[in-house]
Amino acid sequence: MFAVLSDIHSNLEALTTVLADIEKRGIKTIYCLGDVVGYGADPKACLELIIEKANWCVLGNHDYAVFYEPTNFNYGAEQASFWTRDVLEAEKDKRRSDKHWQFLGELPMRRTLEVDLSPNEAIIDFVHASPRRPINEYIFPDDVYTHPGKVRMQFERVRHICFVGHTHMPGVFLDEPDFYLPDELGSVYPIVENEKAIINIGSVGQPRDKDNRASYVYVEDSKVHFVRLEYDFETTMKKIYAVDRLDNFHAERLRDGR
Ligand SMILES: [Fe+2]
């Protein structure tokens, strides 16, 4: 049994809500798909919680932006990564500071697990964005109609199951290609031996599927369960409003999940 979470984006209220739910279910193993930071006002607390609670994490484009350089970011996102970098650089406790930078600097692009999810075996890849471009490529639900070739090509790089985040829109891609919202699946996707799937787990701290609740998944036996949780986004919004260099839009979109 393990949980997978992604795109926390320095949203402490959403992250603590999700971690409490994971603990309540008795889940001890947590994997993270990156974008721990960016947009929100609590980068240090979120980094430290992920370092403490997650077994491992892969590199997201916002983590990359803080450690290296933003690539293809809009103005607001770029400003948020520069602000985040300044906050981390201003940390005076050297041990704490080293911990943050070491974590960001050592994030891998991909992780793979071969697991016995009785009754099935599964090979599971974990990336932030897409199987062929793990940090930066967006696979949107509409792509199955507008760019089916692009989605099919992703599956050439998937052996069985691949968990992704990045678009902040949860759901399951199959190789036809096809896309299913969690609601269409009754919030459960059963992993089966001969079906490849790219599973977007949604975003903990910056949901964008018009549902403002935090999103994550957990896997029990061979079933992927999609979870949504209400959290205190008004507190998160206030913290973003209080930082001049963080665009107010990063706060406003939390209310509507867009
Ligand atoms: Fe993200």
Structural summary, described in words:
The protein contains nine helices and twelve strands. It has 258 residues and is an alpha/beta fold. The strands form two sheets. It has a six-stranded mixed β-sheet. Strands 4-5-6-10-7-8 form a six-stranded mixed β-sheet, with no helix packed on it. Helix 3 crosses helix 4. The longest helix is centred in the first third of the chain and has 15 residues. The chain is globular and about 50 Å long. The structure holds fe (ii) ion (FE2). Fe (ii) ion (FE2) binds next to loops.
Mean pLDDT: 97
Strand content: 15-25%
Based on CA atoms alone, the radius of gyration comes out at 17 Å
* Record field, number of beta strands: 12
Q: What is the succession of H and E elements? A: EHEHEHHHEEHHEEEEEEEHH
Helix content: 25-40%
The low-confidence parts are none
Question: What would you say about this model in short?
Answer:
This protein is α/β, with parallel strands linked by helices and 258 residues long.
